[in-house]
Amino acid sequence: MTGVWKKLRSNRMNSEESGYILIMSLFVLIILFLIGTTLAVLGIQEFTLSSRTKLMDQAYAIADAGVNRTAVALQMDSNLAKTTTPGPYPTAQSGPFTENFGGGSFTWTLYQSDTMPTNSNYKVIQSRGTISKSGRTAERTIETRIIVGAGGQEYDASFDYLFYNGNKDNPNNPPVWPDTGMGFVSGNYNWDGASSYNGHTPKGAVYVKGSINLPVVAIGGLCITGNVVATDNITLQNSWNASWTTPGLSIGRRTQDNSWNPPLIVQPGKLIAGLDGVGSNGIGGTTTIKAAVTAAVACSTDIYGQAIAYDDVNVTATTNVNFFNSALKIERIKAGRDVTFSGTVNLSDTITLGTIIAGRKVTINSNWANGVSAADIYAGQDTGDWKGVILNTSSVSSIHTGNITSRGKVSASSSLSTISVGIITAGNDQAVDTGGTGVDWSSSILSGATSQGITSAGNVIFTESAGSNYTCNGNICSGGYVNLNARELWLANDAITTGNISAKGYVNVRSGDNVTVGNITSEGWVGVRSADDIRTGQILSNSTGGGVSGYAIFVDSTDFIGGLGNQAYTNGTVQARGPVFWESSARIAEPNSQITGGVWGTYVHINRNDFFDVSDTELYIGQIPGTGDSVRCGNNNGFYCHGAGDIFDNDISSSQESVGRFRHRQVSHHVIES
């Protein structure tokens, strides 16, 4: 009985365990099913999202292609970049145009910028990219603003250079390349970074992340063709060189072929400093070119291209001897800030600097038997001294330039030297309000000065000491006053010669020698004085007086013997709103002194002041245009006319065609032809 009971109990326990296992198995299966279902759903969702993201990326890439397509359209159709019609964004200037691309399509539209509606270079591009796959469609739109023509040649840090140094571990103390010690002491080196190799032309010869220093000394020679680029500074030195090479140091190359009248073949090279606009310690790059103490038949420093710097370009030439060529030649100089040249004791052909462009100031110093020539000069303004261009020369030296355009003052000085420039256009923000000067030129001790014309927002001042002269082959136009002053040195040329002069202020011309001026028009008083001959065009003054001796117009030609041999000739009318003074003598045995267009003022004082009238030459007064009179005075003033009072009559005569030759209120003593 007991055995039977145990057997039944054992079977019941086994049955209970089997049921528990079955329940647990079903529970695990349910969990696994749920996990599998979840993973499947997540996988499907991820696949769907990934497909859509990829589709959106493709749509964006297609839209970006539409932006590039619009840029190509701008390049191909220059008229789009020259017009602002029909109006700014959102009015379409060109488009919309749809084109198939990359399995989809883009639609591009060009607009005139709404922020710069009057500047045709500013544009807005809108491009919409669309693509469809597997029943899904993605669309992305790009809107970008561009400036047409704002780009330029890109210099990157690639290895597309003959020499490349990209080591710049410490930006505050960048390396200087190359580490040559004493420099290129002997031998001739040619670095060609401009010629094509296997159909490929490199970007240049040298690229350095840092500074470049290339010293050539002793009997060395270095010729580089192609660009020399540094993110910081560039220094070229050709010093203590007795080399017979041609040249000692050159960037670029200029050669000749063997044909008849051989043309020059130029392989240009550029010096570009401060490429990244930052440089060491946050300072942009500077280009320094030094040619010092070279003595040879043809050794020189030549830059057949441009010297360019983010900040300054500094050039020096000292104690160079070259029997056949210039010791230093540069085709063109550009600086974001200042350009400075200093030349001393260079016995060679004239040093040539080419065209100079500076964001702030240009300074040229030439001393002790040094000649320097520059093409046109363009300068900004130094807000410290308000100057844009400074020219200084002394001790048998010279400076010759082309036209000068400067926002700041143009300052020039010479001593025992000459300065010759083209047309000067000068402005100075401080000129009119504070009495600042637009052009300030001084010469001393047997110096010469020549310009081809002056237009200045400020005053024009020219001051000469004994023995110097000034010639302006064009006109002088000033927003302030004009003051030209040359002192007398016996047997030296102290003459002043200009074209027409116009000024908002007064005009004062004074010389110890001849004065030759075109027409003079002034809002202020006018003074023309000389210890020798005076020749002018018409003189018109809007002044009521307050000038020389209180006159509105004062013309006086005298010398130390009371006017013997001095002549004044005014080819036109002398007219002012105030009193007029005109005095001269006639040169012996030569034509009369004349005022061909008569005199008109509130008071007129005319002298013929001969010391001794040997040939009885006279002063002749013509008619005032549109009148029958030679002289007109205000009703409340007078007319003074005085001859030499010597042994001959007829010292002063007026126009024979005039019936009423003199209209005046009262007449002082005079000698006049009937």
List its traits:
2 helices; 56 strands; mainly beta; elongated; 674 residues
Walk me through what this model shows.
β1 and β2 (104-112) form a beta hairpin. Among the domains are: 52-148; 157-340, no CATH class; 519-674. 12% of the residues lie in helices and 46% in strands. The chain has a 50-stranded parallel beta sheet that branches. Strands 1-2-3-4 form a 4-stranded antiparallel beta sheet. The protein has 674 residues and is mainly beta. It is elongated, with a radius of gyration of 42 Å. The protein has 2 helices and 56 strands.
Cα-to-Cα separation, first versus last residue = 185 Å
Give start-end ranges of low-pLDDT stretches: 150-158, 257-263, 645-650, 656-674
The percent range for helix content is 10-25%
What integer value in Å does the Rg equal? 42 Å
Q: Give the DSSP E fraction (strand runs of 2 or more residues).
A: over 45%
* Mean pLDDT score: 78
Assembly of the depicted chains? single chain
Biggest sheet character: 50 strands, parallel
Count of runs of 4 or more consecutive helical residues: 2
The geometry reads as elongated
How many β strands by DSSP?
56
- Structural class by secondary-structure content: mainly beta
Q: What secondary-structure arrangement, pairings included, does this model have?
A:
Blueprint: H1 2-76, E1 92-101, E2 104-112, E3 122-133, E4 136-147, E5 161-165, E6 176-177, E7 184-192, E8 204-208, E9 211-225, E10 228-230, E11 234-241, E12 249-251, E13 253-256, E14 264-267, E15 269-273, E16 287-296, E17 301-309, E18 313-326, E19 328-335, E20 338-349, E21 351-352, E22 355-358, E23 361-367, E24 371-373, E25 377-379, E26 387-394, E27 398-400, E28 404-406, E29 409-415, E30 418-420, E31 423-426, H2 431-434, E32 437-444, E33 448-451, E34 453-456, E35 459-464, E36 469-472, E37 476-478, E38 482-486, E39 496-497, E40 501-503, E41 507-511, E42 515-516, E43 520-522, E44 526-530, E45 534-541, E46 553-557, E47 568-576, E48 580-584, E49 593-595, E50 599-601, E51 604-608, E52 619-621, E53 631-633, E54 639-642, E55 652-654, E56 662-663
Parallel strand pairs: 5-8, 6-9, 7-9, 8-10, 9-11, 9-12, 10-15, 11-16, 12-17, 15-17, 16-18, 17-19, 18-20, 19-22, 20-23, 21-24, 22-25, 23-26, 24-27, 25-28, 26-29, 27-30, 28-31, 29-32, 30-33, 31-34, 32-35, 33-36, 34-37, 35-38, 36-39, 37-40, 38-41, 39-42, 40-43, 41-44, 42-45, 43-45, 44-46, 45-47, ...
Antiparallel strand pairs: 1-2, 2-3, 3-4, 13-14
